[in-house]
Amino acid sequence: MNSIGFHEGERAVQRRAGLEEEAARLEGMLMPPRLDGGITRFLAQRDLAVVTARDVTGRLWTSLLEGTPGFLESQGSTLTVHAAPASGDPLHDMPAGQSVGLLTIDFAIRRRVRLNGILTVSDAHTLQIDADQAFGNCPSYIQQRRLAPDAANDISGPEPKREATTAGGTAYEDIIRKADTFFLGTTHPARGTDTSHKGGNPGFVRVEDGVIWWPDYAGNNLFNSLGNVAVDPAAALVFIDFTSGSLIQLSGTAELEWVTPGSPSDDGGTGRRVRFHPQRVRTGSTSLRDGGSVSPSPHNPSLAA
């Protein structure tokens, strides 16, 4: 898999946004990585990761991986994850040999790392990824919270999940409308799969007639996610209610929409928004809770009317 430089979708979005020069300065971030130094220490200290991959039928999903610090173990350009999606998760028994995208995040210090590569091992207890890309992102839009397992609701992996309909008015839509954080999975047919973090003030994600959409805030100008969407519409979302532990996983398609900057609901004024069309929805839970103490990111744009 050739991962050197930007692919055609990323370049197209950078060009349309007028940010090609800014993106070019950061193109070196996409060089093949070596997982050592600070990134190794950061990975080793995490207890949460988010992975995007295809299930046994080929459908794209994004799932949580939980463990104790040390469950993400890196050596050279290989990441070993001492955890795997539990029975009932869409990515349980996901096939090896495919591209995957993994993100790990520390909400308390507002730091995140993305790692993309090939899944070489996939069994009930272990995932192994040969990394093709690994890089950090800025702290923007990360709400500061301290997560810990809720002993009263501790579970061994996510609960078995039930498939829900995508009709309007379902309970999961209320969680989405109140969310200040979610994770987005996208893919490119030749350049692999990616998981990214999205955040904003509660209400920044809208649900209208069963379609989920959000404004694209200014970021690092690489446009990894939007570049993928420009080429392949397959996408997956995960929303977490950090108070109740409810988990919403959605698989479907996404499209990038360009609007006049500053138009209604264009939070942040970029003139970009993403529309997601759910095709499959699964509900479950996580033991992680934030205890209700949350500090919003100072970078969150105000919600535009």
Structure commentary:
It is a single chain. This protein has helices at residues 8-17, 20-24, 38-44, 171-178, 224-231, and strands at residues 48-54, 60-66, 72-75, 78-81, 99-106, 111-122, 127-137, 144-145, 148-149, 162-164, 181-188, 192-199, 206-208, 211-215, 234-240, 246-258, 272-285, 288-289, 294-295. With 305 residues, the protein is mostly beta strands. Helices cover 12% and strands 40% of the residues. The chain is built from five helices and 19 strands. The N and C termini lie far apart (43 Å).
Offer a quick outline of the entry.
With 305 residues, the chain is mainly beta. 12% of the residues lie in helices and 40% in strands. 43% of the residues are buried.
Give structural attributes.
eight-stranded antiparallel beta sheet, globular, 305 residues, 5 helices, 19 strands, single chain, mainly beta, seven-stranded antiparallel beta sheet
